[in-house]
Amino acid sequence: MSGRGGGGGGRGRGRDSGRGQLSPSSTRGGGGGRGRDSRRGRGSSGPPPSSHPPPPSQVAPTQPTPSVPATSTALAYQPSSSSGAESLSREVSQKLTLEPQASTTAPPIPPSSSKAIRFPPRPGLGTVGRKCRVRANHFLVNVADNDLHHYDVSITPEITSKRVNRIIMEQLITSYKESHLGHRCPAYDGRKSLYTAGALPFDSKEFVVQLIDEDRGHSSSSSARKERKFKVAIKLASKPDLHYLQEFLRRRHYECPQETIQVLDVVLRAKPSENYTVVGRSFFSPQLGRKGELGNGIEYWMGYYQSLRPIQMGLSLNIDVSARSFYEPILVTDFVVKHLRHANLSKPLSDQDRIKVKKALKGVKVELSHMEYAKTCKIVSISREPISQLTFTLDDKRTNVSVVQYFRDKYNIVVKYASLPALQCGSEAKPVYLPMELCRIVGGQRYTKKLNEQQVRVLLKATCQRPHDREENIHRMVRINNFQGDERVNEFGIQVQNEPALVDARVLPPPKLKYHDSGRERSVNPGLGAWNMINKKMVNGGKVDFWTCVNFSLQYANMSEDFCKELVKMCNSKGMVFCQTASIRIRSSRPDRIDQALSDVYKESTGLKRPLQLLIIILPDQIGSYGKIKRICETELGIVSQCCRPEPAAKFSIQYFENLALKINVKVGGRNTVLDDAIQRRIPLVSDYPTIIFGADVTHPQPGEDSTSSIAAVVASMDWPEVTKYRGVVSAQPHREEIIQDLYKTVQDPQKGVVHSGMIRELLVAFFKSTGQKPYRIIFYRDGVSEGQFSQVLLYEMDAIRKACASLQEGYMPRVTFVVVQKRHHTRLFPTDRSQTDRSGNIQAGTVVDTSICHPTEFDFYLNSHAGIQGTSKPSHYHVLYDENNFTADILQVLTNNLCYTASCILCSFSSLSSTRLRRG
Q1: Helices (H), 111-257
Q2: Cβ distance 41 to 95 under 8 Å?
Q3: Which residue from 235, 356, 404, 702 could staple onto 450, CB 3.0 to 4.6 Å apart?
Q4: Which percentage of the chain shows pLDDT scores above 90?
Q5: Residue 859 — very low, low, confident or very high, per pLDDT cuts 50/70/90?
Q6: CB–CB of 31/790 below 8 Å?
Q7: Cβ–Cβ < 8 Å for 883, 859
Q8: Using H for helix, E for strand and C for coil, what is the string for 625-671?
Q9: Of 12-26, 205-219, 703-717, 829-843, where does mean pLDDT reach its minimum?
Q10: How far is CA 816 from CA 114, 126, 309, 888, in A?
Q11: What span, in angstroms and rounded, lies between the C-alpha atoms of 795 and 96?
Q12: Contact, 366 vs 435, CB < 8 A?
C-alpha cells in the first residue's frame, strides 16, 4: 500500500524537454581523478558505461548549471526489454565484486579474496569545519605475536544452553589443565569453538566430564543427587594468523580477517561470560550497577556492551553502558498481582487476565519451594481451570486424585489460592501441575516481551545519563573488568589500555536557512543546532479550506474551540492560508468511541462535498490510542490528521503552536524552509544536475510479536534543486525481513502483459511529474542495516534500483551513491573541553569524525548533527557502500549535515538524515 507524502509542486511541470534530460546515445565521459571502468579508479563502485552526460565537477558552481541538451525522446519513459532488466542483476553483482584499484593518493591494496564484495575506499579525510578533539569510548588493544589455534568442540549429548556448555568446559579445564592441556588456559565461545595461545599436546582427543545436576546438587541425600556424564571431543580445526590482521590494520591487506578478530573477541569475553548474564554482546548483573522496578513484575539491570573491532588506530575495544529488562525473582503469585494490578487472588482470573499471565510466563524458569532439594522447571502453559478443579492419575495408573489433595497428602501443604490456575510444566501429553504460590521465578531471566509505554518511560528515565556521568560509568566498567589481571587475557598476549581514545574531530558550520521574504527575518544561521520561528514565515505556506477537530480528552473536553482558534491564528501568521472556521462542527467524543467518531466525521464531510484536508485530533488522556487513530485516518478513511497530546495542548504555548503549524504545513503540501545554498544552486553534486535523494528504512515488530509484518518505508525528494519536499511510500513485507522487497517488482497481467511497479519506480515517476526532469543522480540513504547485512542489502537493493530505472527507459542508469546510516551502534563521543559543548554538556551539533575510530580503509564517518536535549548524544554512523558520484569526504559530510536541518516538524537539526526523512507525523 502507498502512504501519502508531500509530493507535488509545479517546477517545470508540463515541459516537453528540460534540463538534465539524458540522451540515450550519449555515454559517460572519462572525467579526471578516480575513473569508473575496470582499468582505472575505484572499479569496485562503478557500473559500466551508460547513457550519461559528462560527469559534473565536484566544485560548487557559482552560476546555475546550463541545461543538458535533450533528445526528442528524452521524456518518454519506455519499459526495458526483459532480457535487459534481467542482465542488471548480473551486472550489479559483477561490478560490486571487482577488485579495488589505486586512488590518486593511496597505494593499491592487495585483495584477499577474488569473491569478496569491495566497498569504496576512503577518498581522503575531510578538512571543512573547526578542528577540535573528543574522547571516544574505544579502548586501544595491543596483541603480542602469538601462535593461535582453533579447535572444534563437540559435546555429547548435545546441549543447547551456552551457560551449561560453559560449565562443562570449565569443569574439563579444571580437571585436565595440568595433565592433558599442557597448562594452557583456553577460551571457549559457548558453542563449537575453543581457542588457545599455542598448541595443545594433541590434535584430537575425547574427554569425559561429570556434572552434578544443578537441581539436586545441594541435597545431602545420595539418592537425590544425580550425576550427568558428557563426552567432549576436541579436534584441531585451524590456525588463525595474526600476521594477516596486522597487514589489514596497516592497510596492506583489503579483506578483514574476521576469524582472527573472533579469537581475540572470545578471549576478552570469556571471563565476563562466566560471571554475568549474557545478552547478545552485552553483560548484565546487579553487581554492575543499580537495579530498579519497571512495574508489572519486571525490573531493569545495568550492564555494559563490549565489542572488539578494527579501526584506523589499530584494534579497539568498544565499551558502553547498557540496561535490559528482567523478571523480578519473586513468587509467581506476587508476579500475578503486579502484572495484572490485581490485589484479590481469592477470586478466579478472567479469561483475558489468564491469557495475559500465560503470555508473560510462558518459557520462564521457576524454582520449587516445597521440595527437599533445589528443583527448577520451565513453565510451558497455565491451566484453563482453577487448580481446585484439576485432577491427575498417580503412577499406579489407577488412582485419580486432585492436585490440591495431592499436595496436602504428599507435602502437608494446603493450597491457599485454589481459585488461581495452576502452572503447567512437563509436556502437553504429560503435564505437571504446580500451585503458583509454591513457585519462585528464577533470577537473571531476560524479559523479552514488548514493554508498555509506562515501562519504557521508567527505563529511559533510569538510564538517561549526562555525558560526564556516562563516561565515568564506562570507565568504571573497564576497571571492574580488570583485563590486565585476567590470566587468560595475559596468556594470549592481549593488553587493553585503561584510557579512552583521544580523537581528532571537526565541527561543521551550520547551513543558512531561507524563509519567506515577507517575514522580518528572511533567513537564519542556526546556533548550536537550534533556532526559532520568531519573525519568520514559511517559505511556502500550504492552504487548508476544509478542516475540523475531534477531542477525545475527558479532562480537557472544553478547550477544543479556543485551541483551534489559536492554532489557526498561528498557522496564518506563519504564512499559511488557513480557513478561520471549521467546515463541519468541532466535537468531543468518548475515548471508547474512536472508530464511530472518526467514521461520523468522514461521512458528514463527504456528504456535504467538503472532503477534509485536515483533521485535528486531541488524543485521549490515557496513552495508547495514537496508533489506532493513525491507522483509521490514514489507511481506512484517507484523511490527513494532526494528533495533539492533551496536556501540552492545554498549556496554549506559543512554541507548541509553532511546532504544530510546521507539521501541518508540510502535511498539506507546503514547505517550511529551504537551504539557502540550494536556492543559490551552490550544493556540490546536487545543484548542477537533477538529483533525487532517497531515505529508506524497515521497521520491525517488537520482541514477542512473532507474526506481525515488518513495514518498509521509502521517501524521496520531489523539488530539485531545493531538496526539501518529500513524498513517501510504505509497504508491508515478511516478518523481520530487512531487505526491502518492493523496491521494484513486476506483475504478469493477462491483458497488459508484464506490468512494472515498485517503490523506487513510483517515486522516480513522481519526481519527473513534479520537476519535469529525470534524475541524473540518486543519493540513497539506507537506515537500519547491520554490518553483517551490508553485502546482501547492497546487492539486492542496488539491483532493484537499476531495474526500476531501466523499466522507465532503455539504458537509463543514473549515477548512484548508496549510504548506510546506523544508529544502533555503541560509539559515543565526549567533549574534552567543557567550554566547547552545547547546553546539555554534549559535543556540539555538526561534530564529525572520520579519523582514528573509523574503518581502516573504507569510506565512513560519524556525524553528530543534532543538539543534545537530555542524556548523551549518539552520533550517526554513515558508511558508503557504493559511490558512482565521486563524493569527497567534505562534500558528503557537509551535504548530510545540511540536509539534517531541513526536518519539517521541529526547530532543531535531526540526529540522522534517515530520521529526518522517516519521522512520524
Answers
A1: 162-176, 242-249
A2: no
A3: 702
A4: 71
A5: very high
A6: no
A7: yes
A8: CHHHHHHHHHHHHCCCEEEECHHHHHCCCHHHHHHHHHHHHHHCCCE
A9: 12-26
A10: 24, 21, 29, 14
A11: 8
A12: no
